[in-house]
């Protein structure tokens, strides 16, 4: 049976769309049961409705504390019988209470090859540091920001003349491929959190490599 998944967004929801499209395929082990936003004007809400997905808005500005906001959010997730959460551009820092309640069941996508460039402005910092390979990471969420155990990563070369925008655009293509893959893995049990690390149920070929410059 497909696992019930909520996608949490704050904006346009491009990664949300990639998850919805992947979950619509026969045999995918997850269904997107809910799209929840902390912003009533998030463009992704209309995109979710157009796909026939239930939506909810929990406006953080209408709650006096982060704890009140998260209690309201958790109540909606419980009501929709959500089993896993995907953060997809959800621009709120979550409290330890919420993170620990969803330990091993909440994942995030971050636009860098963690543990490099935690936080914001990752593409700018990658260009400033002169790295030749950059990318994105899907990880389990832990209380420390962008520090959770890594489920999957995708890398792209940084090329001469790259700007933040051009680099971000190439990485976004990989995000849209990587996030559904990671969701499949946690929902079918091939990747799971054990003892603070990700345990994989199968091995893969370790001979491939991305080199830059080629």
TrEMBL record:
Q: Which residues bind N(1)-(5-phospho-beta-D-ribosyl)glycinamide?
A: 13-15
The cross-references to SUPFAM superfamilies, in alphabetical order and at most eight, read:
Formyltransferase (SSF53328)
Q: Where does (6R)-10-formyltetrahydrofolate bind?
A: 66, 108
GO annotations of cellular component type: cytosol
E.C. no: 2.1.2.2
Q: Where is this site: Raises pKa of active site His?
A: 146
The record places domain Formyl transferase N-terminal at: 4-183
What's the domain of life for this entry?
Answer: Bacteria
- Keywords annotated in UniProt: Purine biosynthesis, Transferase
Q: Name one GO biological process term.
A: 'de novo' IMP biosynthetic process
State which pathway it belongs to. Answer: Purine metabolism; IMP biosynthesis via de novo pathway; N(2)-formyl-N(1)-(5-phospho-D-ribosyl)glycinamide from N(1)-(5-phospho-D-ribosyl)glycinamide (10-formyl THF route): step 1/1
Which reactions appear under catalytic activity for this entry? N(1)-(5-phospho-beta-D-ribosyl)glycinamide + (6R)-10-formyltetrahydrofolate = N(2)-formyl-N(1)-(5-phospho-beta-D-ribosyl)glycinamide + (6S)-5,6,7,8-tetrahydrofolate + H(+)
Gene3D superfamilies noted in UniProt: Formyl transferase, N-terminal domain
Q: Which family is annotated? A: Belongs to the GART family.
What role does this protein play? Catalyzes the transfer of a formyl group from 10-formyltetrahydrofolate to 5-phospho-ribosyl-glycinamide (GAR), producing 5-phospho-ribosyl-N-formylglycinamide (FGAR) and tetrahydrofolate.
NCBIfam families reported in the protein's UniProt record: PurN
Protein name, per record: Phosphoribosylglycinamide formyltransferase
Q: What is the lineage of its organism?
A: Bacteria, Pseudomonadati, Pseudomonadota, Alphaproteobacteria, Hyphomicrobiales
């Amino acid at each position: 049976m497909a696992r019930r998944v909520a996608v949490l967004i704050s904006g346009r929801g491009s990664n949300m769309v990639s998850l919805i499209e992947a979950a619509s395929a026969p045999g995918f082990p997850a269904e997107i049961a809910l799209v929840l936003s902390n912003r009533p004007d998030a463009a992704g809400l209309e995109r979710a409705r157009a796909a026939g997905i239930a939506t909810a808005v929990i406006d953080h500005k209408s709650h006096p504390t982060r704890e009140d906001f998260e209690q309201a959010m958790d109540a909606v997730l419980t009501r929709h019988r959500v089993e896993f959460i995907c953060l997809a551009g959800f621009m709120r820092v979550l409290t330890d209470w919420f993170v620990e309640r969803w330990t091993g069941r909440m994942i995030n996508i971050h636009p860098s090859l963690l543990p490099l460039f935690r936080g914001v402005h990752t593409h700018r910092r990658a260009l400033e540091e002169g790295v030749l390979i950059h990318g994105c990471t899907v990880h389990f969420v832990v209380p420390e920001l962008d520090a959770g155990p890594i489920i999957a990563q995708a890398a792209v070369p940084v090329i001469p003349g790259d700007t933040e925008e051009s680099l971000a655009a190439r990485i976004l293509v990989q995000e849209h491929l990587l996030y559904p893959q990671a969701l499949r893995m946690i929902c079918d049990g091939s990747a799971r959190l054990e003892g603070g690390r990700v345990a994989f149920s199968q091995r893969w070929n370790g001979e491939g490599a991305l080199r830059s410059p080629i």
